[in-house]
Design brief:
Elements lengths: L20 H7 L9 E7 L7 E3 L7 E3 L1 H14 L3 E6 L19 H12 L4 E6 L13 E2 L2 E2 L1 H18 L3 E4 L6 H11 L6 E8 L6 H6 L21 H12 L4 E5 L5 H11 L3 E5 L1 H12 L5 H14 L4 E4 L2 H8 L1
Helix pairs in contact: 2-3, 4-5, 7-8, 9-10
The protein binds ligand PBG.
GO molecular function: porphobilinogen synthase activity; zinc ion binding
Protein name: Delta-aminolevulinic acid dehydratase
InterPro entries: ALAD, ALAD_AS, Aldolase_TIM
């Protein structure tokens, strides 16, 4: 046989497109940029600029309101477009009626105003759920051991309006009650908050990966039982699409999948099915896992951070909520 017409072997040399940094960059399909990042921040009481580290989240701090404003300035300078606020509510303000959740002077609302005053261009996302204010640690009202849906939705609407009033740009309901998006959207419209967006935690799973977050907001000891009657069963996938469809039909502007890394298949299905702005939350346990391994010298923390976040882009996400936001922004700069 004539060797010139013999099929070349290997038939395809994929390694050609990997031969140098420049060629690899040219052939790269997905990239992460700082504009993809939302930074979740914990707020606590206290005067002046002060911060304390969350023990189960090395490198993450609870910040006073003044410190949050300062951190927002630094984040904006790094190019981070949005901050998401989570309050560490003092224990004496946690009650079974959760009234602190819609107090105009609560930590979240004060932090929102402080950020908008100091850094008007920073988008502020706030969390709608009762758990930081609830004596039971649940996202909804608890009556006779049951998390009651419709009364909780009424409270979530009050919380939403107080957050919009304080200046929040995006409202993030993380409670997983049914019917909350429509109720919130109607109330926002009626109150004239037409441009306040809703980023729905549409597909939120009952996950072990929230552990460090519950430490960070002081809900660990408080939580009675688990959240499985309202958060999703990790075995389900079709249900996530039904939830996203429902939330979009009720007026959600953007949707989120949470946690992130164990649910990248859900991100991909959501993006492919709906083509809407799709976010993932790389939650506290995912952050802690990477940081703990890095601190032990078991993995290269910087590379694992970047690789984990790029994975979200590959899975179809438009943006990521991540505690790595400042570190990743610095690495990208
Ligand atoms: C609760 C809420 C949780 C998180 C965000 N909002 C925890 C939970 O559902 O128990 C978790 C975020 C994280 O783990 O980083 N409404």
């Amino acid at each position: 046989m004539n060797p010139a017409v013999q099929a070349p072997f290997p038939a395809t040399r994929f390694r050609r497109a990997r031969q140098s940094p420049g060629i690899r960059a040219l052939a790269q399909e997905n990239t992460l940029s700082v504009g993809d990042l939302i930074w979740p921040v914990f707020v606590r009481e206290g005067d002046g600029v002060a911060r304390e580290e969350v023990p189960s989240m090395p490198g993450v701090h609870r910040l006073t309101v003044d410190a949050v404003a300062e951190a927002a300035r630094e984040a904006a300078d790094l190019g981070i477009p949005a901050i998401c606020l989570f309050p560490y509510t003092p224990m004496d303000k946690r009650t079974s009626d959760c009234a602190e959740a819609w107090n105009p002077e609560n930590l979240s609302n004060r932090a929102t105003r402080a950020i908008k005053r100091a850094v008007p261009e920073m988008a502020v996302m706030t969390d709608v759920a009762l758990d930081p204010y609830n004596i039971d640690g649940h996202d909804g009202f608890v009556v006779d051991g049951e998390i009651i849906n419709d009364e909780t939705v009424e409270a979530l609407v009050r919380q939403t309006l107080s957050q919009a009033e304080a200046g929040a740009d995006m409202i993030g309901p993380s409670d997983m009650m049914d019917g909350r998006i429509g109720a919130m959207r109607n109330a926002l419209e009626a109150a004239g908050h037409r441009n306040v967006m809703i980023l729905s935690y549409a597909a939120k799973y009952a996950s072990a990966f929230y552990g460090p977050f519950r430490d960070a907001v002081g809900a660990t000891g408080a939580l009675k039982g688990d959240k499985k009657t309202y958060q999703m069963n990790p075995g389900n996938s079709d249900e996530a699409l039904r939830l996203v469809a429902r939330d979009l039909s009720e007026g959600a502007d953007m949707v989120m999948v949470k946690p992130g890394m164990p649910y990248l298949d859900i991100c991909r299905r959501v993006k492919d099915s709906f083509g809407v702005p799709t976010f993932a939350y790389q939650v506290s346990g995912e952050y802690a896992m990477i940081r703990a391994a890095a601190l032990n010298g078991w993995i290269d923390g910087e590379r694992a951070m970047a690789e984990s976040l790029l994975g979200f882009k590959r899975a179809g996400c438009d943006g990521i909520l991540t505690y790595f936001a400042p570190a990743m922004a610095r690495a990208l700069a």
